[in-house]
Amino acid sequence: MILRFSLLATVIAAVGCAGGGHNLPHAAHLMHPGPGVDGPGPGVMMPAPIPPMMAMSSQIEFVGPDGMVVRWDAVEQGGFDSEPLICPGRYNFPQGAVYRMKLTDIPGRPGVELYPTLEVAPTMPRTAAYLSHNAIPVQWTEEDFDQVATGNFVTKVLYLPDAEFQDLAIPGVETLVSTRLDPGIDPIVEADRRGSILAVLRLGNKDLEVPGLEAEMVGGEAGVMPDGYAASLGGVPGQWGMPITGTPIGLPGPPHVPLGIPAGLQQHEIRNHTRTRIPEPTRKFKIDVRQSPGLSYPQPVNHVSVRERTTAN
Known about the structure:
By secondary structure, the chain is of the alpha+beta class.
């Protein structure tokens, strides 16, 4: 009996002396940082912006024909307002873009003006070394101009061939022309199969400076613009079916959505009987610090005595 009372007293003492446990929600549900007041800190810091990167460019060498003038859009689309480049000449074009050009003063073709496009491919691991040391040679031939004059569309793909497709031991840029391939063969697909594409030239007989707008109304009707669909805002219905009100029966939205008729449940009340202990935030926080051993510096010098003695040699 004495042993039982001793054990019971020990249990009561152990339980009675222990403080109440604390039950906090997940850390993500607590206010942050520190004393429970959001402010400058990791909770409100914006992610670092992506640093700007310099756009890579490829040097294009306009080989010929000699004396032909090349212009392209520099400021205004369709203005061809760049500095005139007389072949042969070179210019650095940013990669990954298509440039509309204007060819004038073509030798042997007075008054002919053509508007090709130049697509500069991005650098690939296969072409990085070549482009860092060489320019891409671009040339329009008499055959190209003859094909355009007869209404044909010419596509020229300049590529760096793989080892199995090289004609010489020293690799160089090769060109595939759509007019020299069998019907149905895409020169871009074929060049990509043989190597790595550097640039693509496209040439036709369309005149881009004739009177009239490129996007005039067709059939007397203006273009159709799709309606702007409003996104859902707080307290304001947006698109149909977007929830703005929560209900205890698991049906998001107003009482009549999605049933189509007024719901039987018109009102609900929620009471929270949970016992909580949430202390007020700390108004003043004090920290005592003591270092062992503390910092110790020697007394600074405040007087210097100099004595000189002169002796005869």
